[in-house]
Hints:
Layout lengths: L8 H12 L12 H13 L10 H8 L14 E4 L19 H12 L11 H9 L2 H9 L10 H10 L7 E4 L1 H11 L3 E5 L6 E9 L4 E4 L17 E3 L1 H8 L6 E4 L3
Antiparallel strand pairs: 1-4, 2-7, 3-4, 3-7, 4-5, 5-6
Helix pairs in contact: 4-5
Amino acid sequence: MIERDDRGPDVQQAQELLRAYGLDVHPDGTFGAQTEAATLMAQRRLKLAVDGVIGPDTLAALERGPMPRTVPGSLPVFLSRVRGVVYHSQRDNLEHPSGTCNVTSLAMVLEARGVRPKHADAQLEDELFERLLTPEGKAKAKAIGVTSNPWTNPRMLQWLVEQVGHTDAFAETHTWADVWAHVEGRGIPVVISGRFTSSGHIIVILGRTLDGDALIHDPYGDWNRGYASARGDFRVYAKDKLEAVTLQSSGGLRAHLIV
């Protein structure tokens, strides 16, 4: 079985097969986002279980030959991809590392928009968290009826964005069309929440594949691996699974569209 973050000749061989199948994959021997996205695409076309892992069934199907009428490496994997968004893990945050996906996700987007921590040795997500506990933050929380854990409240996150000179068109009724218009039209990643964990979780959307799977920075790690892996940079989350956990009771998406 070959899966995300594996390296070596077995990975390179699998990449060569994906390339022969028509998918534009660089055979560098590292199972990264491009290879994972290509694997999902191939599995759909081969009518296999879509899990992004190259197991015996996927490998055998790829070895049987390329898609008809395809040129090796001709089909692009990514439709869109926002560049220059530095990944941040919540696991090293000073306060509540298991529960600060929110400020950490905001920090990734805000840093991409030019916001920097005030102190050179600080993390922006820690400074955002601390701002919520200032007298101004507490006054804002009181005004909107937030009595505990202000970092989990989307209106407080919206207020944080305003405090550093940006705006956040937050809503619980956004659509995927809104998300992709922001990511692809404006070139700005989107912060979105869903039931990735029992208590809910927030991630950053960077782009999508030709099949509509999402390229993600996940501050807690890899959802595909049940968060057993703390590596959450440039993960690929399958479209159907992502849509199943992000739809809100409002019928839309809870998303922060920051400009």
